[in-house]
């Protein structure tokens, strides 16, 4: 439940010196529960008291050392729902007590050619929440106000957390597809997929879901959310697909998806990391099939998606854990035991 306003006011007056945080020290090691100083916001930042933070597959890639050069003593987590408790002097969009969403994109330079051309997701000098700056596996964090999202009451709670990355990246992947596609394949049915299927079904698309072999619970979950068909990733779909989105981090799925799609179709890779792609015969790509990756998000994606999500309305299925249980949550996610999204609540 979101805190009431009177509770927020109490929190404003009551900012402690230290906070609990789950800290990443070394690849391959579990996170360590530590007392850390509560960060101080710069002029353009806000101090946020975190209510909830989702766990994303990208966090696993950071923990496993597959994403290089994280900030030392990193606090991971980039799907944050939090209350503004203190503002830097330049902050004007939000006030103390507001509940905001903090996504993966923490800051961009605003000067490079990508920022200038509306592709801030590809910025040459970006900051990323829970990777190059501290994130949400803690009681407090700071965030640049211009990169925080305004949240309606509907998403101002733990169910909004998975929208901040799984939802947003899923939406950016989905948005790449031609508007006219009818039959869409989704490979890997985790947090992003379970959100995007709701949007796709709302827009009258037929969705074919591929899970890891034998994941009957995952397949039933997909069918319950409106999938036309769900099966193992080695299976052939019952129709030729008009588009495919791969969320599972497995390079083997690229030739498989190319095989499943019709002429002129796009295969989109929604993840930040994938295992190597095996070589495949050119005829799988022939006939104007294309392959596309999706990197990060723009703020515009976020505004569009949050508006659309509420219309559907998209409801994330969440499995809640306490902050101190982050390592257990991560293990469950790794083992494919989470159907929906894992979220830490503070
Ligand atoms: Zn830039
Ligand atoms: Zn993410």
Task: Describe the structure using short key phrases.
alpha/beta, six-stranded parallel β-sheet, binds zinc ion, 17 strands, 2 domains, disordered N terminus, Quinone Oxidoreductase, Chain A, domain 1, globular, 346 residues
Write the layout of secondary structure elements.
Elements: H1 5-13, E1 18-23, E2 32-37, E3 45-55, H2 57-63, E4 80-87, E5 99-102, E6 105-107, H3 113-116, E7 127-128, E8 140-144, E9 149-150, H4 166-175, E10 183-187, H5 191-202, E11 206-211, H6 216-224, E12 229-232, E13 241-246, H7 253-260, E14 261-269, E15 290-293, H8 299-311, E16 318-322, H9 326-334, E17 341-345
Parallel strand pairs: 10-11, 10-13, 11-12, 13-14, 14-15, 16-17
Antiparallel strand pairs: 1-2, 3-4, 3-8, 3-17, 4-5, 5-9, 6-7
The chain binds zinc ion (ZN) (2 copies).
One zinc ion is lined by residues 108-109, 111-112, 114-115, 123-125.
Can you characterise this structure?
- This protein is of the alpha/beta class and 346 residues long.
- The protein has 2 domains: 5-162 and 316-345, Medium-chain alcohol dehydrogenases, catalytic domain (Quinone Oxidoreductase, Chain A, domain 1), CATH 3.90.180.10; 169-293, Rossmann fold, CATH 3.40.50.720.
- Helix content is 23%, strand content 26%.
- Strands 3, 4, 5, 8, 9, 16 and 17 form a 7-stranded mixed beta sheet that branches.
- Helix 7 links the parallel strand 13 and strand 14 (261-269).
- Helix 4 (166-175) packs across helix 5 and helix 4 packs across helix 8.
- The chain binds zinc ion (2 copies).
- One zinc ion binds at residues 56, 58, 78, 104, 165.
